[in-house]
User: Fold these one by one.
Assistant:
Number 1:
Amino acid sequence: MANFQCETQNGETHISAVILDLDGTLLNTEQATKGVLLELLARYGKVMDREKEDKRLGMIHEEFAMAIVEDYELPITPSCFSQEIMSMYYEKWVQAKALPGANRLIQHLHKHGVPFALASNSRRKSIDIKMSKQQVWREYFSVILGSDQVKSGKPSPDITGVKAGKAAGMKVVAVPTLQNAAEKYSIADSVLHSLLEFRPELWGLPPFEDWVDNALPIEPFYLKGSCRSGLLYQPSDSGESPLPDQDFGLYFGWAKFDTHEIMVVASIGWDYGCCTCKRKIQIHLLDRSNEPICNPQVQILLVGYIRGLTNEESKAGNIVIPEEDKSIARAALDLPAFGYHTNLPVSP
């Protein structure tokens, strides 16, 4: 979440400071630790209830520990549970990567002298471990505040979050971790799929200056799998996509099928079922030659971002990419700012 502290001068509202959440907003800690609770419960012969745990996101640690011990009838105290799971978390947190748009936003706010702070429901020690590989962030934040440094956690205004931000009279932008639970954030002033969709100028902040002819250079990322009927099927032992939930929208880059290297636009979204929400990645080949592609195995390097998906596109079974977006991708891939395709077929 991003909360904006506002001031009114001469009848106009101005943003005086920004408060950012950490888990699921800036760092992909939730995906890095996804199997930890499952593993711990298995030690005691318990099976994790995914739906119930999704509802626990955002709880302060002490409440979380007590709820887990009670709900699963574990033969240990909340304190013992806390010690066990925290040692497991510590090993995983240091592997957490910055989420799409996080570095960009932090650098932008710092560059323009906008005061910004970090407020998290995590304990301060946990925050320091999670951010151990993000030293620049630590230098840029005006304040870093953990749940053990305030009297009350979310949704109290003492700490950040959607309800907390609204309770404190702030403007709130939500970036849900669970994309099928966006309705839970309806009280936010804006709900985004990714920080890449964030437009500072809509909030009275300086606009981003890193767009190159309607295309945004991003930190390159790889995809691989089998391409069938335009859809990418990624290998995964758990059946879940390795991408962060916040990767969403139209991206472009290069795909390699055998010896064929082809420009592509990739639409990354979600397939919403009645009870499930699965990754949907559709690959659109640009300027494909007439030579047939026999092997469906593909490696993809995405180097740029065009825009988010419209509501109609995100619900469509088959997305048709407008010619304007294809033209943007073709033009961008000829520019030095997007010249990463020589890295194929190296895997990350």
Number 2:
Amino acid sequence: MFPHHREREQPIFSARAHVFQIDPATKRNWIPASKHAVTVSFFYDANRNVYRIISVGGTKAIINCSITPSMTFTKTSQKFGQWADSRANTVYGLGFATEQQLHQFSDKFKEVKDAARLAREKSQDKELANTALNIAAPQSPPVMCVNGPEDKLFRSQSADITLSSEKERIKKMLSEGSICEMNLEAELFTLQDSNTKLVAALHEANANVEQWKKQLAAYQEETDRLREQVSQVAELEAHGGQGPSDLLKDELTQSLEELEALLKAKDEEIHILQNKKVEYHEMEHDRDEAIHRLRETEMRNAEMERRIQNTEQTLSNSLEDRDRMDSEIQRAIEILDIKIFDLNDLRQSLVKLIDK
């Protein structure tokens, strides 16, 4: 009988709101019925054609109101509405978080009230008969109803453990990717700086080589000219002719030695620059190898990013599945709370009947 009772009444709409009741003494002030926002649900009993508004806080029923065609839900502000329950001799008030939630609840209240009016027009006597049948229902323990949510809770905990491990793995991959990217950026910056310095040094060396080549050509011409003059002087002396003075000969010899020394120094500088040019080519080769390694690392980084995106997608799907599972569990718990409350009502009714 209990499973049948569970299938008989189903929630058709739920919203979260702060519940209030009118002060029975003053009939003006509101008394909070809940410390925080609770779930307020519309339930439909297919067998009895009865609509109810039910809200449970813990093990206590805050609202248990059967909707009648004479009830009216009044919006008193942008986020607050109320209706009177003559059977409970009270007025309920609901405070919503947004104006949209208030409009949705008000529209559903009007829809359910119209449905209740149609149901009452069809049958007005079935409620008492069905109440008698419900009182006769045995007190089956609600263990069978709890097994489903417990199994879902177990799967939810397993999903939480799996999600936690997935999060840790993603954090580790992101950390490794960040460190690798930082190393790549540092290596690239060093290569670019070295390349800039090498290019500047090469341009300067090429310019100096051209200049020194021109100077060397001029010095060689001057040396040849001086050597020719010395040769002429030597020929004149050999023939006994009138030659230049010893002073002029010494000056020419000194100039020739200075030019030869300068020529030797320039030859050494040219040799040094040629060695530097060879070193530059070697550094260019090293730079090309470093760029090749950098590209390979970038490809590995792209592959790692693709794997991270796939893992994030998997994690997102797992989170959606867990949220859907949590929603189903919450729905089952709400229904279970309502049914436990109904069982308590049945037990109290049976006790009253036994006492009579």
Number 3:
Amino acid sequence: MKRPWQGQIERPPEENVPRHEPTNPLCPGSRRANGEVNPKYESTFMFDNDYPALQPDAPDPGPGDHPLFQAKAAKGVCKVMCFHPWSDITLPLMQLSEIKTVIDRWAELIEELGPKYPWVQIFENKGAMMGCSNPHPHCQVWASSFLPNEPDLADGHQRAHWKTHGEVMLVEYARQEAVRKERVVVENEHWLVVVPYWASWPFQTMLLPRRHVLRLSDLTAQEREALASIMKMLLTKYDNLFEVSFPYSMGWHGAPTGPYLQEDMSHWQLHAHYYPPLLRSASVRKFMVGYEMLALEQRDLTPEQAAERLRNLPEVHYKDKAKGRTAEGQGE
């Protein structure tokens, strides 16, 4: 961190995004690539991805001709969910009721797609730095006929901990972090946000419920309201860190679905990951290269340092503060 930076300087995110752009395929009333016209929606809006990575009728490649060359059909569906009709707003600037609507829709997606697919991945790539090609507030949902690598590893480790210790690993982890406090960023009655003990990205965080919960669809109304509140607090702090619309990739991990709905998945605990790339400023990011790709990830600052910096930031968004609004407010 002390070494003078002579590497790549990132372009800061665009601040003057138009509220509605007729050529933006995510805006209300706009025409998308497949020719369909979006309704003039006023809340969330869901549609099938026009360029899906997974398709329900993907062909089976058949048996391989060598043990080193094996493949199976990857079937599924890909959807896009717009959070809000405005392009110039992000989750931390939305009203709590609007964020809760997003959460409710996420839970409905688990109920809709879960019975058919073993894994339903909800994720948001925010900012061009994280590969997002459209500034309109949205996330993606990929439901797959198989359990992908990361959740498969998570399932195995949580299951092993359950068998060895008789406790749900992430429930115990949340309890420990709540007592220790040094890596806690924000917390409320139902949720806890920490910079994980094992964090490798500079301001990486993990969002955990205090109660044992398997999936988003299992959350109570009170837990969803509290989730909206803590998401707003966390994302406001992220934006306030460098006073920029903070880029990140985030996603939810919950107990697998599909055939796993008939199994005991008590070893699982619902949680969300946030992976932001920024390190020193709004224009200097962390690069996972060289030794980190080939040997072991390295920390640029400790989880405790990152948590303290985030924890000490105000909970009023810098844009709202400049306009004299409270943390409950919404961009106008």
Number 4:
Amino acid sequence: MSNVHEEAIKKFLSLMENVNERMKGTFQNMHHGYPTETLGRFLKARDWDVQKAYKMLIDCLEWRIQNEIDNILSKPIIPADLYRAVRDSQLIGLSGYSKEGLPVIAIGVGLSTYDKASVNYYVQSHIQMNEYRDHVVLPAATEKYGRHISTCLKVLDMTGLKLSALNQIKLLTTISTIDDLNYPEKTETYYIVNAPYIFSACWKAVKPLLQERTKRKIQVLQGCGRDELLKVMDYSSLPHFCRKEGSGSSRNSSNGSVDNCFSLDHTYHQQLYDYIKQQSTLVETGRPIKQGSVHVDFPEVDPEDAKIAETIESEFQKLADQNGICNSLNDLKVNGD
């Protein structure tokens, strides 16, 4: 770490000494014994500007207090059928670990429909997975690999990406804003696999809008990305949709749902759901667990994120228009035969 960065962290630490006890408490829940590393993440996200990073962290702590994020892991989504429906339509899971011990998070971008529950359930579930990653997954990886592990790898499967994904752009922008503002710099690399033409067209337009720091983290791989990913992880940690060429992110892989890290039957989701139910009994002893989603305040979308969302929308619109032209030409051909 350079002297400038060390100096910035010192300044940041002294500013944090002046925050109230409640904020100090939630900050402690957040940093898990690594306050300097956490401040470093917020500084990195604000290009090492101490005042901006301090404001960002204070806003994050206020968001955590107002929305009781410290207790979100004790609020299960019930009944289990509803949680299964959330899992079947918000495809995300932990497929394993990289050779360096970083958790590998798999996301089925193209086949997630987000249409089986209200938006609040999807946001709640996303935050719960973030908190479980920070409270349970990363500390366990740190212990297992004998070095501090605070970031993960994400493999984004674009199989099945369609123009109808536009319907979810608002929810996805909300989720990515929550991550940007409250869980900054937690992803080391984003690997994009099984990218159809529609993704490539959007990527061309979106790439120039991304910050250099973000751009460096994104790698678009050929096909299912298996060979490239095997350089950083073992076969057993590959997400099911990267196992063989043209495999795609089908919800049921060849070995059934146990091998499919999106499924509620996968070990990761079983452990996560059991953990939340266990925490809820500790908190709510003697009281029935409440049904209903946790309502989390959605942050205002960052202007940069809003611009990216707008660009994706307009690119999708162009593709839809082109599609429309192709379809009407096809109709003419059919009718003219």
